[in-house]
Amino acid sequence: MTNPWDDWDHVLKVDPDKDLRPGETFEDVCRTGTDAIEIGGTLDVTAEKMSRVVDAAAEYDVPLYQEPSNPGVVIDSPALDGYLIPTVFNAGGPFWITGAHKEWVRIDDLDWSRTHTEAYIVLNPDASVAQLTEADCDLTADDVGAYAKVAERMFGQEIVYVEYSGTFGDTEKVAAAGDALDDATLFYGGGIHDYESANEMAAHSDVIVVGDLLHDEGVDAVRETVKGAKDA
Ligand code: 1GP
Fold first, then answer.
1. Which of 26, 48, 84, 187 has its CA 20 to 30 A from that of 145?
2. Which residue's CA is minimally distant from atom 3 of ligand 1?
3. Where does sn-glycerol 1-phosphate bind (predicted)?
């Protein structure tokens, strides 16, 4: 089976709780050359803020995915190509592994054909996502590879996501996840801020995810990371 992300190199993650740079619009965001936009965020996200971003990006021709941080912010919009449902494999407790999902599946008329799975391995202990999920970030490259294999082989996850949100990660650990996978697509996110950092991580993963850079530096900086990813 082929998935849209088989052909992606670059994803832009938009945090609905953060502003774009002054003077920049969602049209500019959609014209950065990114392969897809993922709308997600860990703190203070509401369904209303999610809808605002989906509506603003809907008229442009870039695939649009929602990555809900909890079942309460899920929105139903025809503009969405799908939902990427995170499970934090190294979370400190069951809520982020099956608890939130138990609530998610109670949504009426869940569109399973547009619902996809994303196995997070969270590795920056200072990131909000690590603190919120009480993730065990003290992992060796071998541990990361083992989690990736569990995610793909035992839990059928379509995407494995090595998450260093806020900081540039250890390429050895990212490569270990890549080596462990046969079919799942490896996403990497964290600290990508220019052509070189994008190019380096793209060499070790299938898809790089750029987040804060959009809100901190703007669309020109994002465009450089797209080039870096495409050249790898
Ligand atoms: C966050 O992995 C993404 O979920 C991207 O991280 O914000 O550090 O680019 P940055």
1. 84
2. 189
3. 13, 161-166, 191, 211-212
Query: Within its chain, how far is the Cα of 118 from the centroid?
Result: 8
Ligand 1 centroid to Cα of residue 190, in Å, is 4
The amino acid at residue 109 is D
163: annotated binding-site residue?
Answer: yes
Instruction: Give residue 2's pLDDT.
Output: 87
Mean pLDDT across 217-225: 98
pLDDT at residue 21, as a whole number: 97
Please state the atom number of ligand 1 nearest to the C-alpha of residue 189. 2
42 is in an annotated binding site: yes
Looking from the CA of 53 toward its CB, the CA atoms found within 13 Å total 29
Tens of pLDDT, residue by residue over 93-110, are: 999 999 999 988 988 788
Measured in Å, residue 41 CA sits from the centre of ligand 1 at 9
Q: SS3 of 222, please? A: helix
Contacts of 39 (CB under 8 A, 6+ apart): 13, 14, 16, 50, 53, 54, 57, 64, 65, 66, 67
Q: Tokens 């993650």 correspond to what residue?
A: 13
Query: Would you identify the CATH topology of the domain 7-231?
Result: TIM Barrel (3.20.20)
Instruction: Tell me the best of 10, 11, 13 to mutate to test the pocket of ligand 1, counting ligand atoms within 8 Å of each CB and taking the most.
Output: 13
Tell me the longest C-alpha to C-alpha distance in the chain.
Answer: 47
| pLDDT for 205 | 98
